[in-house]
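okkk here we go again. third time trying to get the flavin-adenine dinucleotide bound version out, last two times i messed up the smiles copy paste (missing a bracket lol). double checked this time i swear
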Amino acid sequence: MNFKYVIVGAGLAGLTMAERIANVLDEKVLIIEKRNHIGGNVYDSYNDDGILIHNYGPHIFHTNSRSVYQYLSKFTEWNDFWHRVLTYVDGNLVPMPITVETINKLYNLNLDCSQVEEFLRKQAVDIPEIKTSKDLALSKVGQDIYSKIFENYTKKQWGIDPGELDTSVISRIPIRLNRDSRYFADRYQGMPKHGYTKMCENMATHKNIKIMLNTDYKEVIDDISYEKLIYTGPTDYFYNYKYGKLSYRSIEFKFETYDREEFQEAPVVNYPNDYDYTRITEFKKLTWQDHRKTTICKEFPGAEGEPYYPFPTKECKAQFNLYAEEIKKETNIIFLGRLAEYKYYNMDAVVKRALDVFELMVGRKE
Ligand SMILES: Cc1cc2nc3c(=O)[nH]c(=O)nc-3n(C[C@H](O)[C@H](O)[C@H](O)COP(=O)(O)OP(=O)(O)OC[C@H]3O[C@@H](n4cnc5c(N)ncnc54)[C@H](O)[C@@H]3O)c2cc1C
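finally!!
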């Protein structure tokens, strides 16, 4: 087989590149995907009861990038959706991220915005050099809120103490000194009207795009000639683990369907201190589907299983840097996306990265 462009992986990174190559360059492109579907981790499907679920955990689109929003809007319409998350602490459900209402509910107070600012200032621990997620959380909210909301959730999620994780983990959770209870504050938020899989299918409709499912690229790559390979799979696997296996955090998703219309008050409820799971998602509250039953998903983080989150420690980054040196030597292979770059990307960020990489590849950007 002969293709000018071959892409490994049909997630958002691979699909964005394929769509650009097919439509802008009018070149043929082959995507090789080891799973039996396209979409990567944003894949959604209807379960046996006819409820639309996110098979790899809840995915909420949000971005401040107008160009990414406009790009994806070519392939889907959106349902307006403002994500909300509650956290179960001491028998109460409090809003996340931390807002004025969170503090008032946690401590049975009735403070206004400036009083909450003062309250948090008094709680905050003075840490001269912030090195870890624990340092960061303590410096923002103090010991008590850290223990109630962040400490155990982070331990469950990563399997280690927040004092061993770099600041990127907890810095993703903003603290709001107002009453805005939306989980994300981005300018564009929404859910693809007909689901992520449909959006992905629309990205891949061009006749120049061929997709080979159920195929690990190593099974076929020696029989295909190409000028450029765009690789969105795991980098350690590509190099036959020559510098060892990179660490990832995985999640086991347990789906349950209930014979009632509603399960919980918000689309997502976090459980930092109780139970073994970190959170429960109720899909109908994300997708607005009308159905007499409801499906939820409990998330059990663990070390084994599908690689989801690159491990945010210095040691892991140093190990990946050994692979990064190998990548620099490649002349006709582009490593792109969350697995190949060993980097957590949100959906908008990975699409932006792919659009930029395409522009670089065709020489329209330096
Ligand atoms: C639990 C969870 C929740 C998330 N929630 C959100 C959210 O709410 N909002 C948000 O913006 N982002 C969210 N994300 C991030 C989002 O999933 C990623 O941004 C996106 O999936 C990255 O796309 P990608 O193409 O880089 O990777 P992937 O989607 O992982 O695609 C890579 C593809 O490569 C394939 N592949 C791997 N190895 C091989 C091989 N050897 N041969 C052939 N194919 C191979 C894989 O099967 C996969 O389909 C979440 C991620 C997770 C894990």
